[in-house]
């Protein structure tokens, strides 16, 4: 008697998902009001994409390529003239560069960077709350290594 009031399990399963590739009738009803707005949005995005593509193609379009050969020949002739002029003077690029830049006889010492506050926030905080910053490096994180040389994990100050 109690089984007459309920729908059988087979009917429930058939109505929920009739086939594995199809949506249930409830999901189809829920999606129905959004079909037209989604289609309009999709067509709008498609139109925008096609418009951007068409504009970019028309912006770079070049129908006349006759000047490309002339320009390439002029550049090749100019390069040949430059090489010939360098041969006549006997100067090469390496010799000219060696004459311009003297080779240093001894290496210059590396400049040590002084510890200074960097940034606007650190200087403003140091003026207002002098004990907030690390007293050694004037940084927000106490004991933090410098950013330029963070060291290794096992290095301890």
From TrEMBL:
Domain Cytochrome c oxidase assembly factor 3 mitochondrial coiled-coil: 26-69
Compartments it resides in: Mitochondrion membrane
Membrane topology, record value: Single-pass membrane protein
Transmembrane segments annotated in the record for this chain: 36-55
The keyword Phosphoprotein belongs to this UniProt entry's keyword annotation: no
Gene Ontology terms describing biological process: mitochondrial respiratory chain complex IV assembly
Domain of life according to the entry: Eukaryota
Signal peptide start and end residues: none
One Gene Ontology CC term in the entry: mitochondrial inner membrane
Entry keyword set: Membrane, Mitochondrion, Mitochondrion inner membrane, Transmembrane, Transmembrane helix
Quaternary assembly: Component of 250-400 kDa complexes called cytochrome oxidase assembly intermediates or COA complexes.
Function, in words: Required for assembly of cytochrome c oxidase (complex IV).
Family indicated by similarity: Belongs to the COA3 family.
Annotated protein name in UniProt: Cytochrome c oxidase assembly factor 3
């Amino acid at each position: 008697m109690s089984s007459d009031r309920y729908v059988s399990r087979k009917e429930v399963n058939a109505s929920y998902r009739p086939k594995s590739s199809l949506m249930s009738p409830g999901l189809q009803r829920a999606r129905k009001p959004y079909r037209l707005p989604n289609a309009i949005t999709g067509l709008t995005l498609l139109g925008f994409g096609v418009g951007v593509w068409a504009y970019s193609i028309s912006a770079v379009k070049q129908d006349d390529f006759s000047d490309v050969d002339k320009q390439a020949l002029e550049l090749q002739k100019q390069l040949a003239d430059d090489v010939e002029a360098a041969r006549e003077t006997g100067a090469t690029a390496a010799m000219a560069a060696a004459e311009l830049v003297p080779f240093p006889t001894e290496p210059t010492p590396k400049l040590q960077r002084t510890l200074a506050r960097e940034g606007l926030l650190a200087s403003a905080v140091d003026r207002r709350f002098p004990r907030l910053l690390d007293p050694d490096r004037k940084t927000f994180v106490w004991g933090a290594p410098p950013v330029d040389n963070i060291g290794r994990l096992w290095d301890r100050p």
